[in-house]
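Q: A reviewer asked whether we had any structural model of the full assembly, not just the individual parts. We don't, so I'm hoping you can provide one. Inputs are below.
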Amino acid sequence: MVAWLVPKPEGLYCAPGDFYIDPLVPVPRAVITHGHADHARPHHEAVLATPETLAIMALRMGEDRAGRARQSLGYDTPLRLGDVTLRLAPAGHVLGSAQVVLEHAGQRAVVSGDYKRVPDPTCAPFEPVPCDLFVTEATFALPVFRHPDPRREIGRLLHDVRLFPDRTHLVGCYALGKAQRLVALLRQAGYDAPVWLHGALRPICALYGRFGIDLGVLGAATGAARDAMRGGIVLAPPSAIADRWARRLPDPVVCLASGWMQVRQRAKARGVELPLVISDHADWDALLQTCDDTGAREVWVTHGREDALIHALGRRGVRARALRLVGYGEEDEAGDAAAAEGEPA
Amino acid sequence: MIAFAALLERLVFTPSRNAKIALLRDYFLHAADPDRGYALAAIAGTLAFPAARPGMLRALAMERVDPELFALSYDYVGDLAETVALIWRPPADRPDASPPGLTEVATALADTPRADLPALLARWLDICDTPTRHALLKLVTGALRVGASARLAKVALAEIADVTADEIEEVWHGLAIPYAPLFAWIDGTAPRPDARDAPVFRPPMLAHPLEGVDLDALAPADWRAEWKWDGIRVQLVRTPGGERLYTRTAEDIGRAFPDILRILQDMAGHVVLDGELLVMRGGAPEPFAQLQRRLNRLAPSAAMLRDLPAGVHLYDILFEDGEDLRALPFDTRRARLESWFARNAPPMLGLSPLIPFGSFAELAGIRAGTRAEGVEGLMLKRADSPYLPGRPRGPWWKWKRDPLTVDAVLMYAQRGHGRRSSFYSDYTFGLWRGMGDTRELVPIGKAYSGITDEELKFLDRWVRHHTIARFGPVREVEKSLVLEIAFDAAQPSTRHKSGVALRFPRIARIRADKPAADVEDIPAFLRATRCVDGP
Ligand SMILES: [Zn+2]
Ligand SMILES: [Zn+2]
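A: Here is a predicted structure for the entire assembly that you could use as a starting point for your response.
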């Protein structure tokens, strides 16, 4: 039992270090796992995160809202905070995403934030850290979620682009992480034409560039000539793909890149013509594998579909409990579960 | 099987007809024989084998998956075959084999006793990837909804071979799975297959609506008029190779109309007739709703055959004694039809009468005067017109009765498909029912068409600015915009809350000037359209 890590309504609280991890409301001291809006919230007093996450926060919420005092900490650099030793380990989710490794009183707890195990050319790979308590997400915690090889999905997209040379492939994707990963995967697959971007995606792509991730030639979809984008690939936030914004494109093939696209009803409800199963979260096998890899005897589940995961861990003799922290899963794919049930925007 | 699964996966999400054709072309061009023949059969719905029951799938999955995890997953996915496809785990010592080909699957399914099916299926599932498992499970349960029709597949094949889809249609029903002669012809390695005595479908001749035509410029003596009956257009085929009842889209509906097939069986020779299928009462056609009851049934009960007997009003004759009459003028064919009818006198079949007229003004009077049940309007056919497949402009015109209209209130809107997918272009509208506090709008129909692009933009904007609730892709709007709806007929319906179903509703115009409170009440509408008797 790790008693010094406490789930509170404000978020997960580390008592001996007196800080919160990914708190949901403004707090005096916050450690942030990654830049998605549901994990990185504005108006904390002091913020500790990787340099990439701090840059993402400053870009998205403005310097004045991104924490009054900001401390940057690279991966694998132990730091003493009160009675706790803290270290950040790569989570493989998006650029700068980190697991928070905490040691106190001879116990080690790892708070994973969001993570995935599949290699991603735009961020450092997930590192399994042995621990007593593992705090995991559970966005795709059902055995029906097994994400296929993303290269296969990119292959399907490129085959479709060849098949419909007069149409524009409009790919809905989350602005932070997914968009950049898609471009990088396209480049790996040998696609070197310009990739057109919705205005909401451009600043973060530029930021990835400043951190040394080369995304090739990117064009601005807003203001570009219709015919210039014919036969091309346009990336836009999911909310734009089925709406008026899409009307500027010649005969678009509406695609959506998300782990939810595994389920047909989801793709149908969003009016998607080419669903691409590409996710920045761990799938069912990866969740179980990771819990195994950490060797943790105790697992806490922050957000997602916890029932199935807790059941499966229980059968493996691992004590698992749901934290039911309200407020996660509002920006990236995790939040899409709720969004898809409402308006398919 | 992998390529076929990929095709299905892409088709099922594709709304546009042209895109579907492009996908089918790509598949038929690259798939091997005889796989593509079995794929064509699967798409056309001609593949026959005893279907696996859902219970078997569930039992199979339970052998591999924790029941609680299965229940949570099924609950989430909502479709059994899809859940099993996604959740299936090959064993650790997974056999090192590639997924079965479509040919192997189709032939094995036809030969495998039901008791051996679970083991066979499990072996296949172990060596397939997820999309292929899904296609396989949909196929074996007989629930393969591919999102493409037989017709679309034929159009795709026709494009490859640079022939017309009608040319394929004419040989189609004489061919068998896996259609080797068809593909040889498509590939250009063999001549067109010869249908000989097979009861094949002959693409029908269709008419354009009489719009933008100056009747004064036409000589009445050159034209023939007949009723356009409100049933469904059919083709009756009787050859030494068998009998068929086809719709005008080449669908074989013989099983639903054994009464018609029996009449064809009693005839002699090789004859192909064109007519209108109707439900008859004492020689007179019943309203379309009665025919709809027959059409809804795959095979009718004895009571249905007794209470809703089918008949056909004959318009034309295409073949007699194996002789192709289609190139002959209408008048000559009509004479052949009348002579054939007099000699054979088949029960429940009748000649659709020609309507004599001296001038088009007189004919317009006849058209306006008829409100007879079962009549949709008139057909005008040139006396010298040959029978041409498709919809040539000029030789035939359909002259429907003026549509009926009703003003109704817009209630819900949904996004359209394809080109209209970013617009709210499907509209549900309703009329009032009840008094005082219980007065409410009840939907009477849905319309997708009839409006110009300008009106579409207006409605789309209006819907977005007047949304009061959202249900998935549907928006409920403020009940304040009146639409004038045109429709061909109103029929009583127990399946609709309003008690009425509209035939071919479309939007005639937007009545932004009319207050929603002023539209009719449902009871008044039902009386006006004679769906209920007046007070
Ligand atoms: Zn995230
Ligand atoms: Zn999250």
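A: Points you may want to mention in the reply: The longest helix of chain B spans residues 330-344. Chain B touches chain A through 35 residues (CB under 8 Å).
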